[in-house]
């Protein structure tokens, strides 16, 4: 069988593909019954054929950007332009930054994320289109279609379409400022526990490991604000805290897990077709029983806390949730109804726990790291807090979020330097034409190079240095010389991404 005819066979429907492999298997078995020499020839032919097939599959989309006349880099088979990241040799923020620098004058350019055509957009105005005006076309992510395969992925962070919109509309009431204000005393309590823990740890050793300390603190905050429980993450015991263990399982940092993550992101169809799962089922079992035990403690009735568990309980009792369709083109305002299953609710709990503690802990620990290196910024931050406490009679109240502008600038500057998602990924859900005339097809990936944009000297002079003053007071408006007449937020520039935007618009 020639090369070409094999490739043609590959293109037909999957049933023919199966028949093809059965035939190959037969040929192989038949060869076993013949002489060793014939067998080696058949095995060799098979290897060559399979390699040729894999090679073809790994490069077949590589003409995509050339055909569209979009500037792009030469990709490597299978790895595309992200080889160093896929092989876990480099941080994805740096890989994308290096590519962007090669196309610094282009509003966007083409790349290949593994084998997949990916448009990298660097122009803030086009990024605004993707995130706001034309969001419908870009609301999906690479694994969104496959979320029913795992309980843990059935949440806001991974889903798409009407399911995402309806769940989001039903969870939004949790985030009103009145709710935040009511919960604030819980954060204050966790703060006092943190102070005690810090005293104990510094009494034992002169060195404190900031990241794990912040993980314990943010876990405790999420535990009490979201689940209404005390996680005990900040208690000093010989046994490892079960929430800390869960956090480590969810954010498994082994290389093997890293490869799984990348393979799932690039080839989700193959990943799930082969029966793989990314998350351990331990996670959903743990959170399911946690949720049930909190429900039981509350006698399956919402309480006066009106927290996340109450909201989830109310949704469970309703059985169905209703919301709007994401597709604004459907003008009939049709309401979408969705069945509420335990898996759906458990999955939302997992994302609130995971997205809540990890992001905040890494931001806080990076802020502490930068403040430790920048004594003057540290002095100013401390002075602002001392002055605030004097004014408020030593009491921390919700309004502190607007009354500590220098602390806020320090956190925003930290998120500029260390964005939790160095590249935000999207997938085109319907063919779309950019104002430039470039038409991208459904399924094309879109990468927004947050890390690179945050470190562009055009937007942030001396981009690698920690300089909270640039995001403080009036300086915030003029820190970007190319857009000095407009406010930082209006510019649609990267400072928008420096803030903890936890949502798709
Ligand atoms: C410093 C703190 C945080 C940072 C920097 C951060 C960052 C982000 C970013 C960049 C996204 C958007 C991802 C995308 O669109 O692809 C996101 C989404 C999300 N975050 Fe956060 N986050 C933080 C804290 C939290 C907390 C405390 C919670 C919950 C208690 C949370 C829950 C979520 C959820 C549920 C989503 C998905 C929203 C959706 O797609 O509708 N995050 N976060």
TrEMBL record:
Matches recorded under InterPro entries: Cyt_P450, Insect_CytP450_Detox
Transmembrane segments: 39-58
Primary localization class, coarse: endoplasmic reticulum
Entry keywords, A to Z: Endoplasmic reticulum, Heme, Iron, Membrane, Metal-binding, Microsome, Monooxygenase, Oxidoreductase, Transmembrane, Transmembrane helix
Topological category with respect to the lipid bilayer: Peripheral membrane protein
Region of interest (Disordered), ranges: 470-505
Keyword Signal included in the entry's annotation: no
Necessary cofactors: heme
Protein name: unspecific monooxygenase
Catalyzed reactions: an organic molecule + reduced [NADPH--hemoprotein reductase] + O2 = an alcohol + oxidized [NADPH--hemoprotein reductase] + H2O + H(+)
Enzyme class: oxidoreductase
